[in-house]
Amino acid sequence: MSATLIDGKSFAAKVREKVAVQVARLKDEHGVTPGLAVVLVGEDPASEVYVRNKGRQTLEAGMNSFEHKLPAETTEADLLDLIGRLNRDPAVHGILVQLPLPDHLDSDLVINSIDPAKDVDGFHVSNVGLLATGQKAMVPCTPLGCLMMLRDLYGSLSGLDAVVVGRSNIVGKPMAQLLLRDSCTVTIAHSRTKDLPAVCRRADILVAAVGRPGMIPGDWIRPGAAVIDVGINRIEHDGTRRLVGDVDFDSARHVAGAITPVPGGVGPMTIACLLANTLTACCRANGLCEPQGLTA
Fold this sequence. Notes:
Number of domains: 2
Order of helices and strands: EHEHEHEHHHEHEHEEEEHEH
Strand order of the largest sheet: 1-11-8-7-5-6
Distance between the termini: 32 Å
Low-confidence stretches: none
CATH class of the largest domain: Alpha Beta
Oligomer: single chain
Strand content: 15-25%
Radius of gyration: 19 Å
Mean pLDDT: 96
Shape: globular
CATH architecture of the largest domain: 3-Layer(aba) Sandwich
């Protein structure tokens, strides 16, 4: 048995295409152009590459891109002042502050200063609460991308047994909430879960989001299960650096029914869903119908 590969790169391209079509419709029919503002503080090389990719894909989707690159010594007051101005700017529908921030800045304070309606990362405490209570919220991009791929794979997720390994605020917890909302039976597992292999083996859907390379081997996976590997870990072997997931791909692919590779699985969906969230925020701000198939 060899698992079907869930091609996140191809899926993300289709999502971006759908977003671009809807953006063009908004322009033609309503004279509205979605706008995404990205704020980068400092000169972290990985963050700079990520922000550059976001800006390029935002423009390719027909949206307006507003980039604010601030020096590492930027004060908290100055950063909050910028966010306040973006909150009030009607041309900006989505605001993203690139993490991590320099140590002298309070990330929670900064994220919670963003207007929840423009919080396209879905990290604001209000959006977290809305998601947890089943109300309309901005949903974190990575879990949203995982959900889209699972819906495409299964159609309906109702009644499936899902296990999420990892309890982070960014992936694990919102992923569990989304699966629960789609009527899965959901277990959140973590490093202190008793008999973690047995918990994983009962899952129809196994989502790995722990940040530990190759933590989940093939013999922890139920035959035929869908495996969504959110992990992106850089390891070095024989002088060569490469990316691997939280799942041991070589052993898992012979057991799972479907699996996301690393790289090329969940990763490309994150920016695609950021664009989808910006489009959704723009529609909500203007009282327009939300795009079908691009929200949770």
